[in-house]
Write a structure and sequence with these properties.
Layout lengths: L2 H7 L2 H10 L8 H14 L10 H28 L3 H5 L5 H16 L9 E4 L6 H10 L3 E5 L2 H13 L6 E5 L13 E4 L9 H12 L5 E6 L20 E6 L8 E6 L2
Parallel strand pairs: 1-2, 1-4, 2-3, 4-5
Antiparallel strand pairs: 5-7, 6-7
Length: about 260
C-alpha cells in the first residue's frame, strides 16, 4: 500500500480540522452542527486517529470553546423566549450528556467526606449553566454561578428566572482567577472552559487554594485521550497543594473526565 494512501487513511481528524478552521462563523447551523457532531463522534472513538500538532490542538480547543458558547447562547435565548422554557430546555441536543455528567459528579462528591450542607460554587457557567440548573432542579442544591463574560451572565440570569430557579441559583459576573469569595462554599466546581488559555486553570485553582475553606472539595473537569480534541486537559502543575481524592474517566458518551481534590 502506498505511503500516499496510508496518509489519506489516517487523517479523518485533519480533514475535519480543515473544515472547522475554514468556517466563518460558529453560530449554530446545519453545517456547523453537523461538523461538531462528527467531531464529538471521533473524540469518543479509539485513541489512534489524532494527527494534529500541539499548536493545531490548541487552535481546535479554542474553536470548540467558541462554538460551545455560541450554541449555549442560541439555546438560552430560545428557551427564554419560549412559552414553555422547561420543555424547550429538554430539547437541547446535549441535554442527556449533561444529565449523565452531573449525575456522575454529584455521586462522586457524595462518595467523599460528607458535608452537613453543600454550598456550591460553579466557575465558568456560560450562557446556559446546565450543571447548576440540574444540581438545583434534580438534587435540590443552591448554586452560585460565576462567569467572566457579562453577556453570558445576562443570558444566564434571564434563563434561571424563566425556569423559576432564581431562589436556588445566583449568577455573578466575576473572574474566577481573581475572585476572593471562595470561603463561602464547601464545593467548588471548575468548568472545562473556565480558563481555556494555557496556565489559566492553574491561576484559578491557585486562587481557590488561597481562599477556599480548609476541607472544601474542588471538582475540576478535564479530558483525556481523543477527548482532548474538544477540551484542554487539566495541567498536573495546576493541582499543586491540593489533596487528590478521586479521578473519574467515563467510558460512555460523557465527554469530560473529572478530578476531585480536597483543600487541605
Amino acid at each position: 500500500m502506498s505511503e500516499v494512501r496510508l496518509k489519506g487513511m489516517e487523517n479523518p481528524i485533519r480533514k475535519l480540522y480543515g473544515k472547522l478552521t475554514a468556517l466563518k462563523t460558529y453560530t449554530p447551523s446545519e453545517e456547523v452542527n453537523g461538523l461538531f457532531v462528527e467531531l464529538v463522534r471521533l473524540a469518543l472513538g479509539p485513541d489512534d486517529k489524532n494527527t494534529l500538532t500541539a499548536e493545531e490542538m490548541d487552535k481546535l480547543q479554542v474553536i470548540c470553546g467558541t462554538a460551545e458558547y455560541e450554541l449555549e447562547k442560541y439555546w438560552a435565548e430560545k428557551i427564554v423566549r419560549s412559552d414553555d422554557p422547561k420543555g424547550v430546555m429538554e430539547d437541547f441536543p446535549y441535554m442527556e450528556n449533561y444529565q449523565k455528567l452531573t449525575r456522575m459528579e454529584w455521586f462522586s462528591l457524595l462518595s467523599c467526606e460528607a458535608h452537613e450542607e453543600h454550598g456550591i460554587f460553579f466557575a465558568g457557567g456560560g450562557p446556559l449553566p446546565l450543571t447548576a440548573i440540574l444540581l438545583a432542579r434534580d438534587y435540590g442544591q443552591k448554586v452560585t454561578v460565576a462567569d467572566i463574560d457579562a453577556d453570558a451572565c445576562d443570558f444566564s440570569m434571564r434563563l434561571v428566572k424563566a425556569l423559576g430557579l432564581d431562589k436556588k441559583i445566583t449568577v455573578i459576573n466575576a473572574d474566577a482567577a481573581e475572585y476572593e469569595g471562595y470561603g463561602g462554599f464547601n464545593v467548588i466546581i471548575v468548568a472545562a472552559l473556565a480558563g481555556l488559555e494555557k496556565g489559566m486553570k492553574g491561576r484559578i485553582l491557585g486562587k481557590i487554594k488561597k481562599h477556599a475553606l480548609r476541607g472544601a472539595h474542588v471538582l475540576a473537569r478535564s479530558s483525556w485521550g481523543m477527548r482532548e480534541l474538544l477540551y484542554r486537559p487539566l495541567e498536573p502543575e495546576a493541582c499543586d497543594g491540593f489533596k487528590r481524592i478521586i479521578e473519574v474517566r467515563p467510558r460512555n458518551d460523557v465527554v469530560n473526565s473529572i478530578v476531585i481534590f480536597k483543600n487541605s
